[in-house]
């Protein structure tokens, strides 16, 4: 369903590339990949290649570490607050996912 939503949002005549880790439930042969999407599987056990992992690491390093959570709701509140802080800084999101070696120049 997630890929179908992405496919729907892709402009007519365009093609999307989706980075995906190789978790079994995501890389199953049963996965229906729309024609306007290509899947690029990240290397196994290389979370540093996954930009989402880098975003979580940034949030842990800056807003979520060195604290004691008092409840499950408290964890969710702090994670949502950290996520919203990050979303308010699009330039930071771009730099977290950028790789000098991947730019080709």
Automatic annotation (TrEMBL):
Cite the Gene3D superfamilies for this sequence. Answer: Ribonuclease H-like superfamily/Ribonuclease H
Which GO terms of the molecular function aspect are on file?
Answer: nucleic acid binding
What keywords were assigned to this record? Plasmid
What is the name of this protein?
Transposase
State the organism named in the record. Answer: Croceicoccus marinus
